[in-house]
């Protein structure tokens, strides 16, 4: 079935840190924007400058990898992912209740949301949590930054309107060169845990696969971005509840800091952050709002080193800078052709 004629997603959310059900919402932002939502965004402009909200969003999403690391000290990875989507869903449902908005309707829509939840929440959130059992949170944050690179490579195959250009191919090559630099390829990848790194890279691959699926199936679906994302997180909560019941045992205790980390990861890193991102997209446009992607690995690395005492070698920040430069190149679009 071919992709519907629908607007492109306004942003491609960052992810393992952010709750990246955003893809569902952004796929329909242009088609479903309501006067009430626009009025709400306008009121927010007077409350807090967009630059301040941009900085807060970068910090919240950047610290998400630290919160995952702390959460896994007391809970199984599936349980960390479950808490993340559960508290994220509760935060968005509270917003829907205040706004008196309804959840999406239709079996077809919920069927697509089930697949989207698996690709954008259940799988990547679990993989990042498993990855951080053996790799530093800073490395997980940098692996997350490869998501635009995977997205560009996949879109060339799956989306006919994304034509390859020399600049985008150069960005793809440069980005993966940065990955090799971060991993220390000249040492035979002996500097870190290969399995954990593979999990983090696989998690970052899940996001563009999910974006493409959402773009083909949910673009233009009736319902506000918050309603679609809230429904998606509810489905992911059910999925992870089942998986956790099958493969983990109930926690014997609820230590303070790991528990607070999981709650903050969901309520702030998913609920509040998504609301803030929607406002930024409405106010300053998708291109500027998407720039938050490039601050996340910087903040994740800084938080891991300063708060958790993780070691930092020269190749990590250098490789991260190369990855981000490559990702930026892959996001450039060719300008309009000049008339002959």
Helix and strand layout, with pairings?
Blueprint: H1 22-26, H2 29-32, H3 35-47, H4 50-62, H5 64-71, H6 77-99, H7 107-131, H8 137-144, H9 147-158, H10 166-183, H11 194-217, H12 225-247, H13 256-284, H14 286-290, H15 296-306, H16 315-330
Helix pairs in contact: 3-13, 4-13, 4-15, 5-8, 5-13, 6-7, 6-12, 6-13, 7-11, 7-12, 8-11, 8-15, 9-10, 9-11, 9-16, 10-16
Shape designation: globular
Radius of gyration: 19 Å
Into which percentage range does the β-strand content fall? under 5%
What class do helices, strands and sheet pairing give? mainly alpha
Which stretches are low in confidence, meaning pLDDT under 50 for 5 or more residues running? 1-12, 15-21, 27-33
| Number of strand segments | 0
Biggest β-sheet strands, sense, barrel: none
For the residues shown, what is the average pLDDT?
80
What's the N-to-C terminus distance? 37 Å
Helix-strand topology string: HHHHHHHHHHHHHHHH
Total helical segments: 16
Residues in helices, as a percent range:
55-70%
Structure in words:
- The chain is mainly α.
- 70% of the residues lie in helices and 0% in strands.
- The protein is built from 16 helices and no strands.
- The protein has helices at 22-26, 29-32, 35-47, 50-62, 64-71, 77-99, 107-131, 137-144, 147-158, 166-183, 194-217, 225-247, 256-284, 286-290, 296-306, 315-330.
- Helix 3 (35-47) crosses helix 13, helix 4 packs antiparallel against helix 13 and helix 6 packs across helix 7 (107-131).
- It starts with 21 loop residues before the first helix and ends in a 10-residue tail after the last helix.
- Mean pLDDT is 80; it is low at 1-12, 15-21 and 27-33.
